[in-house]
Amino acid sequence: MKHKIPEVFPKKIQLNKLLLILVLFSFTVSCTKDNEDLSDRIDKSVNLRGLGDSASELLSDEEFTSMNLEIVYVRGYAPDSDALEMFKNFLERRTFKPDGINISLRAVESSGEAPFEIEEIVEIEKQERTVYSAGDEIAVFIYYADGSNENDEDNKVILGSAFRNTSMVIYGKTIEDFVAKPGNPSRNTVEAAVLNHEFGHLLGLVDIGTEAQSDHADSENDGHCTTSGCLMRSSIEFGYGISNMLDENGVPMLDDLCIRDLQANGGR
Question: Measured between alpha carbons, how far is residue 239 from residues 2, 6, 121 in Å?
């Protein structure tokens, strides 16, 4: 004789499954809320100040003893490894960061916005930046763009731009096109020169956050140096004349006047 199994067990099982689903849903909502709260607690304002405003913080170890460089690049425009090594060496020579300088790389998809206004780069930073200054570590955002600046001209192109206190952009496509021309310097040399130059602006040079100790600021090009051969000459940023500066000696160095300015503001 066959016995019909009472339905109390299936109903109980279904009830247990329902309770389990409700518990998991509650846990998921809770975790999501916690993550959102954590993101909201990040003080992004410390990285949203004016150009040169963090010069002393980048230079000295009084407030920040380490530096974290978040480099975000569009696929196909990854930074040159030799250029990054020269860039890091430059930072180690000029800043006091006893707990080290870290460089992290991350690839992203193209924004499709090229050629760029600087305001569009600012919007990209809002979307892509994940590292902000906290504790004893100061953070810097560097974006490698897959296009040019909208203000480029036939005989004057912008290779990089520093904006805000810890933000800069390298126009990777412009550098790629520039070094492809016969007779121009190698990519790693040009790229390192532009990285060093733009970071020089973050360090407050010339007289944009780090006070000039002598008269060497270029009155026609704000933030630049008048000393021949100095890294902070405007020709590094704007491309014209850069080939004459990047000779067999490689990447230009800061002149003594710029170095004295940095030393007076807490740097090496």
Answer: 91, 84, 20
Fill in the DSSP letter of residue 156. B
pLDDT tens-place string over residues 42-62: 789 999 999 999 999 999 999
Dump pLDDT digits (tens) for 170-216: 999 999 999 998 888 899 999 999 999 999 999 999 999 999 999 99
Q: Was domain 44-264 assigned CATH 3.40.50.11270?
A: no
Using the Cα atoms of residue 82, residue 175, residue 249 and residue 212 in order, give the sign of their dihedral: negative
Nearest alpha-carbon partner for 59 in 236, 201, 161, 231:
201
pTM attached to this predicted model: 0.84
The closest of 134, 201, 197 to 165, measured between CA atoms, is 201
pLDDT at res. 53: 98
**φ and ψ of 217, to 5 deg:** -85, 135
Nearest to 114 by CA among 127, 104, 105, 124: 124
Query: Which residue ranges make up each domain of the chain?
Result: 44-264
Instruction: List the strands of the sheet with 160-163, edge to edge.
Output: 101-108, 66-74, 137-145, 167-171, 160-163
Tokens of 250: 């490689």
Write down how long the chain is: 268
Q: Report residues of the chain scoring pLDDT below 50.
A: 1-13, 15-38
* 3-state SS record for 173-232: HHHHHHHCCCCCCCHHHHHHHHHHHHHHHHCCCCCCCCCCCCCCECCCCCCCECCCCCCC
Cβ–Cβ < 8 Å for 71, 105:
yes
**Rounded Cα–Cα distance for residues 31 and 11 (Å):** 30
